[in-house]
Amino acid sequence: ASLSRVGWARVHGERWRVRSTSPLAAGRAVRVTGRRGLMLTVVPASNPSQEGEHT
């Protein structure tokens, strides 16, 4: 799979241009951490099975 730091993501049904500090594979779930104009900053989403758990 191709990895990229800039691309497109669907957020709440809307298509947004996104940028990540680390390469992401297409189709990977992300979490929005910021916005500058019409560009969202994202990071890879946590594993859904780990959500709500604290270490």
TrEMBL record:
Alphabetical list of Pfam families matching this protein: NfeD
Residue ranges of every copy of the NfeD-like C-terminal domain listed in the record: 4-44
Coiled-coil residues: none
Superkingdom of origin organism: Bacteria
Gene3D superfamilies reported for this sequence: Nucleic acid-binding proteins
Name recorded for this polypeptide: NfeD-like C-terminal domain-containing protein
Protein source organism: Paraburkholderia steynii
